[in-house]
Please model this.
Amino acid sequence: MLQPDPLNLVVLDAFRRHSPLVHCITNDVVQSFTANILLALGASPAMVVEPDEAEQFAAIADALLINVGTLTAIQAQAMHRGIEGALAANTPWVLDPVAVGGLTFRSHFCQQIIQQKPSAIRGNASEIIALAGLSGGGRGVDSTDSVVSALPAAQMLARQTGAIVVVTGEVDHLTDGERIRTVKGGSVLMTRVVGTGCALSAVVAACCALPGDRLENIAAGCGFMKQAGSIAAGQSQGLGSFAVGLLDALSGMGGRHEAD
Model:
């Protein structure tokens, strides 16, 4: 039986009872994997990317994810419209600022939208430091900074935007600008499979839709992914079986099975 720690079990139970509908405007590389991660945990994913529909659907959804990994001008329109719909409906929205700082178009776009009250921001250390305006960013999607070094930038960004800021790496650090939470665990294999970080951002979005303390809910969501990564790594024979094992670990967490 795959049991999270006792505090996370409460959040996991709420997660599955509420089964948040998460509207993911995410990058083209990870759509399927992101949807499967959400389904494995008990959420409901939707990928509505047409600008004329994004605003309407964001108001229906329980949470909205904005991931700029493969940002285009058309996608940026959908994201702007989605955020407008989310704000009008008081729907939480989350930003994953993939490779921000190193590329001008996405960096300018992200600086624009963080003025629109994101509920959470999830990125690696270099992305968070760059988004806070303290460096030029990492090497593409790879961080060149340590998570600990990004914590002051994360706190500053949280205070400026009102968002929970999540800096992920070997140890995840989360902050609301004052409080700090750390989440340990996981596996280095999680950095070798495309989409684990992007999928985590979708889990963060789902956790924003839950009742209770948002910082604690998001920390629990990070814990689900860390624990599942550790379990999958212990059972895998390589990257392919690891990716499948991650889904299996998430779907079986807390003793749940797909037949349940």
Q: What stands out?
A: The radius of gyration is 17 Å. Residues 214-235 form the longest helix (22 residues).
